[in-house]
Amino acid sequence: MFNDQIKQFEVSGMSYKHLTIKEREILMFLRAKGLSIRAVALRLGRNPSTISRELKRCAGNYSPSKADNDYHQKRQNCHKKRLLDSHPQLRRQIVHYILDLHWSPEQITARFNKEHQWCVSYNTIYRHIYQHNLGEKYSSRGDTGIQRHLRHKHRTRHSKNTRRHREVQTDYISIHERPGFINQRQRIGDWEIDTVIGRTGHSILLTIVDRLSRLTLIKKVVQKDSQEINKGLVELLGAIPKEFVHSITPDHGTEFLHLDEISERLGVTVYWPDPYSPEQRGTNENTNGLIREYFPKRTDIDNYTE
């Protein structure tokens, strides 16, 4: 029987990364017949170093079943447990923040970083949520479900290469030309801007967020057009000391088509992101998500005073 199996291995070769139980049995058989490590490796289609390491790991009388069991046990033990599986108190804390305080994973991560409590990214929290790893009790989207409390409701993040791009202005400075110290948030005065839309045809909110300090300023604008937006920007940015107004990174909405007027009037540089790439303005996007908790879609912003 072993001779037939040996011939089968010699003809077909093996593509397994680790030795199988059959290979281990043949290894024992061939070594018992006095074959060298190199000869055994040749028969099994293995590197001689693989056979040598296998025999060193199993000093004394070689047992295929014991060697195979030891290998699978080590494989099982080498898998690192997920963070929330190892720390149930962290799991409970995250559930509390989401369900009771209505915090987003981004806010939770920021709190942990500030207090040096846990080293956990917001992507990890999202992953645990969508893999239902915060407890079956909170898995659904129902009244007690965690996913129901998420601000972005599991929206898929798309690569910019998979999106259909609209036409962009030719007279603009790309975000890819933005200096590294701005990208790394090393100074105050680099602003991201966008709008929060309420009921169609009614007032909107103009929001600007400083990339470093996260200072957020909000202006009620009577309608969504470039003229009104520019008026709002002049009012918001004009009230800030000039040394804290260096650049703005807007959305590609039509309401921002005439920011060249703002650039000339306030002496700021406008850096345009790629079309359909909100992740390039993540600070403002996340802030607008927070604002949405107080001004849900179709809210009539006309009913609110500044």
TrEMBL record:
Gene3D superfamilies: Homeodomain-like, Ribonuclease H-like superfamily/Ribonuclease H. One of its GO terms (cellular component) is cytosol. Transmembrane segments: none annotated. Keywords: DNA recombination, DNA-binding, Transposition. Residues 175-306 form the Integrase catalytic domain. It holds the Pfam family rve. One of its GO terms (biological process) is DNA integration. One of its GO terms (molecular function) is transposase activity. It comes from the Bacteria. Belongs to the transposase IS30 family. Required for the transposition of the insertion element. This is Transposase.
